[in-house]
Amino acid sequence: MHWRASIPRLLCMLALLCAGARAVRADETPGVVKSITIRAPRDVGFFAGDLVEANIDLIVAAGAEIETASLPHPGPIDYWLDLRSIDVEKRTEGPNWRYTLKLFYQNFYDALDARPQEIPAFSVAFTIGGTTVSADVQAWTIGVSALREVAPPVKEDPKDYMRPDRAAPLIKVAPLWRATGAAAFAAVLALAVLAYDRAWWPFRAPKARPFGDAARRLRRLRGRGVEEAYIEALLILHRGIDQTDGRRVLADDAGAFLQRHPVFAPMGDSLARFFAASREAFFKSQPDRSRSDLPFGALETFARKMAAAERTRS
User: Hey, what's the signal peptide range on this chain (predicted)?
Assistant: First the structure.
């Protein structure tokens, strides 16, 4: 019967040999596990029911994949401690990989006085090149406190009552500086494009933009009298057309104007309508009819469209 009982054990050993996988300690494969660091926002002053947060950084060689089955499972860890949750984050850090284990424990120890309690150690397995490496996370202590005040143990030196300060974590600012620089460069580039389009300094165009100036002046006429503002708007647009062509332009010259400045060709109908309204106002002395055919708002729209076409000129 003894040799029959050994058969399952022999079969398991044979399966392991055939699979070619082996479990080794971290010190048997030097260089795989680089460092293990335990960080906690605080490690003292915990009462019954408090959550205990811990972040464990494991720096390993690139290519070492963590085995999730080896991680602690949420649930009771000790009679006084439960593991509520565990999350794993992975990122590249230089030539290595960094795994960060975010653990949340819950303390159920109802202390009668302030005393240390030890969070149990555990191991995490990594697989690299068909080899399983075990990384041991050492136990660490937290300070639990009673809900009532008690006298601490007597110590000769009062300084012994104080724990040393924890070292502040180092924050990598290089990525933040790079992101800030990229955002600043994008903002400056966008401002440069806008300045070029609007002919702001230092991209002020050598040629004036009469229609752009006319559109701005028409906006300032809105608060004036209706007829006075309308006549002034017609004169402003006439000056803009004359300045653009470098000569006096009348209604009969509109076709030649568009041939000399083809960028305004899509505005041919609007230009003809403008000259017709101008003839009604100045030559026939009928500003009311002119304003009825081409209202002030239409003049502003005409000026804006001419200014937009003007900006497309090289």
Answer: 1-26
pLDDT tens-digit series, residues 64-95? 999 999 999 999 999 999 999 999 999 999 99
Instruction: Report the number of distinct structural domains present in the chain.
Output: 3
| Tokens read off for 151 | 């006298």
Per the CB < 8 A criterion, the answer to whether 240 and 211 are in contact is yes
Instruction: Encode pLDDT of 181-192 as tens digits.
Output: 999 999 999 999
Q: Position of tokens 């996370």?
A: 137
Q: Give residue for tokens 């007597």.
A: 154
Strands (E), 153-256: none
Range of the domain at 144: 21-152
Whose CA is closest to 105, among 59, 135, 140? 140
Beta bridge partners of 107: 81
Beta-carbon contacts of residue 283 (< 8 Å; ≥ 6 apart): none
Question: Is residue 38 located within the same domain as residue 142?
Answer: yes
Can the peptide bond before residue 202 be classed as cis, meaning omega within 30 degrees of 0? Answer: yes
Span 238-271, pLDDT tens digits = 999 998 888 998 888 888 999 999 989 998 898 9
Question: What pTM was computed for the model?
Answer: 0.43
